[in-house]
Write a structure and sequence with these properties.
Elements (H helix, E strand, L loop, with lengths): L4 E6 L6 H16 L3 E5 L5 H10 L9 H25 L3 E5 L2 H11 L4 H12 L6 E6 L2 H11 L12 H17 L4 E5 L4 H16 L5
Parallel strand pairs: 1-3, 1-4, 2-3, 4-5
Helix pairs in contact: 1-8, 2-3, 3-4, 3-5, 4-5, 4-7
Family: Belongs to the thymidylate kinase family.
Protein name: Thymidylate kinase
EC number: 2.7.4.9
């Protein structure tokens, strides 16, 4: 059995990570076939998708910040049990659009709940499982939010509508995480053209995939 790999894509609003992932999946699928599992957070299974609907309404639903953090963590646990762990046990490559770093950046940093606090509840939920590689797509919040407004009309959620200082704090938290965990988290300049971002990401992914047969 080939070595399993767990890869996550992270980034602030408007970084373009989902678009990049969609392009690269079309390239990786012919190479990996059913060994490639792609998923997203929150979501990936019925329970987590139901939680996603609560967490990402179009309008503010008055949710308490700690409730939000706990719901993201609960969705992550179910996602892990149903999707990620079985795939890794089968030696597959799992690529997830968001994972624990999103909670650290958005709830720990942006919401001001504390990165250490969010880390602790997620350690309980994930039993310490961390990605082999996290690709962080970095973009200034002003540019990211402008992209959101230009390209996601009708799909803007509560987080998109937060003020600029919230998004600045989210980005700074991501950058601190990348500094602290530079062996795991690799940074991509997402302010570049889409073609260049895809090329840089492809290079990282292919280098990591080579380690499966190490």
């Amino acid at each position: 059995m080939t070595k399993p790999l767990f890869i996550t894509f992270e980034g602030p609003e408007g970084a373009g990570k989902t678009s990049v992932l969609e392009i690269l999946i079309s390239e990786l699928k012919p190479l990996l076939g059913d060994e490639l599992i792609t998923t997203r957070e929150p979501g990936g299974n019925p329970i987590s998708e139901a939680i996603r609907a609560i967490l990402q309404p179009a309008e503010d639903n008055g949710m308490d910040e700690r409730t939000e953090a706990l719901l993201y963590t609960a969705a992550r646990r179910q996602h892990l049990v149903e999707i990620i762990l079985p795939a890794l046990k089968s030696g597959k490559v799992v690529i997830s659009d968001r994972y624990i770093d999103s909670s650290l950046a958005y709830q720990g940093g942006g919401r001001g709940l504390g990165v250490d606090n969010i880390w602790q509840i997620n350690q309980f939920a994930t039993e310490g499982l961390m990605p082999d590689l996290t690709i962080y797509f970095d973009v200034p919040p002003e540019l990211g939010l402008a992209r959101v407004k230009a390209n996601r009309q009708g799909k803007i959620d509560r987080l998109d509508k937060e003020n600029l200082s919230f998004h600045q704090t989210v980005r700074q938290t991501y950058l601190q995480l990348q500094h602290d965990f530079s062996d795991r988290i690799k940074i991509i300049d997402a302010a570049q053209s889409l073609d260049q971002v895809v090329a840089d990401t492809r290079e990282l992914l292919l280098k990591t995939l080579k380690t499966r047969k190490g």
